[in-house]
Amino acid sequence: MNPLNLKPLNLIKAFSFCMLFWALSFFLTSQGLLSQERKPLPAKTASIQPSDSEVKHPPIATSSSCSGRGCHGGSEPVLGQIVQQNEFSTWITHDKHGKAYESLLSDRAKTMAKNLGIPLAHKDLRCLACHTTPQIAQEQSKLDYPLDLGVGCESCHGSASSKWLGIHTTEAWKNTQSAAKKALYDNEGMNYLGNAMVQAQVCMGCHVGAPANPQAGIPARDANHDIMAAGHPRLTFEALSYQNNMPPHWNPKKYESNTNRDLEIWVTGQLASLSSSIELSSHRAELALNNQGVWPEFAESSCLSCHADFQQPTWRGKKNYYEGRKPGSLPYDSWTGVLLSEALLISGQDKQITSLYSDFVKAKNTFKTSPKQAKAAANTLAIQLANIQKEIVTKGINPPKEWRALLLDQLSKHNLETATWNESTQIALALSMLSSKKPEQAILQNLWENLAYPSGYESPKGYSPNPKSLEGVLQKLKSSK
Length: 481
Ligand code: HEC
Ligand code: HEC
Ligand code: HEC
Ligand code: HEC
Known about the structure:
Layout: H1 7-13, H2 17-30, H3 87-94, H4 107-116, H5 125-131, H6 137-140, H7 153-157, H8 162-167, H9 171-174, H10 178-187, H11 196-207, H12 225-229, H13 239-245, H14 261-289, H15 303-306, H16 340-347, H17 352-364, H18 371-395, H19 403-412, H20 421-433, H21 438-443, H22 445-451, H23 467-479
This protein binds heme C (HEC) (4 copies).
One heme C binds near residues 72, 88, 151 and 193.
């Protein structure tokens, strides 16, 4: 993997020494240069059986049951096998998912718990829903020991039934073709992550949030404004840059012959994140209708409109910023929807969704919309988005031949003079996806400097659009092949 790909996410998050260290350690890791020592697991992470009638989800094996040396707990990747067999070691040593439960014991989490008025973050179902394997968050909140440390294997791969544990180690399994394999995964309730769309949907459950899924035993995952105000980092997930920041425990060579893999991850990520945010929005409206939530839910609107510095003159005063909206109204500035047109273009999907999305945004752009109206608008859109995703799961992404030029054209249509941070950053990440080569990455440098969080901040303090830089990169990429 090209360590340059690390840049976007980290530059935004911490334009500092910290980032260099991260990148370096990641580089070393990906080269296998750091030791892969394994931490012993507490004895109590044994397999959980659905012993009491309360347990409704499929049985969870927990990560420790994948950790055998001959299974996924080897210290070095095994060559010539379909899987590398050191996945557990990579996860527990280098992957932040393996530390997600520990984060609930950190000082920051303690402060958050205090602000929220809850006794312990690591016992709170809201936090556990995303910081451990979600299928067991409910039980974990009641027990005094951790069932699974952090976001375990089954959070992403699905609940491993005993049947799955048996079949996936057989000789016959190795020789099964991937299309047939997907059916076997589906039958056993496992997620076939080789399918980019399936993979994207899995990530969004925690990185955007999701309503409860009782069938899978997963509680609601909702980092709302209460949690943000208590001190949680803002969630701005973009599938490709995040995947590039995950220490790979899969064999990246698998995709050497698929030159469109990055595009697939990017575009399915755009669609899945929008879809998840809309479903979450419907869930929040439902909570408000039942008097269980606040309305409007601030986390659905533009953070940086309410939390802006009062600067004069302000770039928000420029022509078209308030297009279709009264100054002072509550702006919906979704991180997940700004590149919808681009995503539809690449995936060749119905443009009608764009108008449903504008209806939804209009409904969100005011304090006046009732939860009932907002829920209806969200549900109409969610159904269409779900259909699109279903189709992509089976048919994959078949971008038009000239997709690169089309995508650059579509990106050029944004009003760069008044682009919010969300818009500029999503555009910059898309441009980064289009710039796999080193010299191209170098011309993105100015963009990151404008978008990065200044040291000591977890927001882009003093952000204002930088149309010249964006325009410059767009032009350069258009003229390069
Ligand atoms: C919707 C899922 C979700 C919920 C709910 C949630 N978190 Fe998180 N949390 C995340 C994700 C995802 C990150 C990583 C964000 C990133 O880097 O993009 C994170 C990051 C954090 C971090 C920073 C970790 C670090 O050191 O970098 C802390 C601390 C934290 N969460 C605590 C909590 C607490 C406490 C709660 C409950 C009050 C909670 N979280 C609820 C998903 C969630
Ligand atoms: C945060 C999500 C996540 C977690 C947690 C996770 N994985 Fe994965 N895993 C992935 C992704 C994404 C891939 C790549 C899938 C692909 O492209 O085919 C993958 C691939 C794999 C593969 C290779 C599969 C193949 O067909 O090439 C194995 C084996 C694997 N993971 C095992 C594990 C084990 C064991 C754990 C727990 C120690 C684990 N994973 C935890 C996301 C995750
Ligand atoms: C069950 C919830 C869950 C799922 C599913 C999940 N994540 Fe995460 N992810 C988290 C949490 C929580 C954190 C923060 C961990 C911490 O630092 O405490 C995190 C952190 C990360 C980070 C580190 C970000 C940073 O700040 O450095 C990356 C990268 C990441 N996730 C990528 C992915 C990808 C890609 C997928 C899908 C293949 C995925 N995640 C699926 C919960 C999840
Ligand atoms: C409609 C306006 C509004 C929106 C939109 C909004 N907030 Fe807030 N936020 C507030 C108010 C009001 C407070 C309480 C401020 C106070 O008491 O001083 C607050 C407090 C906070 C705090 C704690 C105080 C601080 O400045 O550290 C954080 C952090 C925060 N919000 C983050 C966010 C994030 C992240 C988003 C977007 C996901 C967001 N807010 C969206 C109005 C908003």
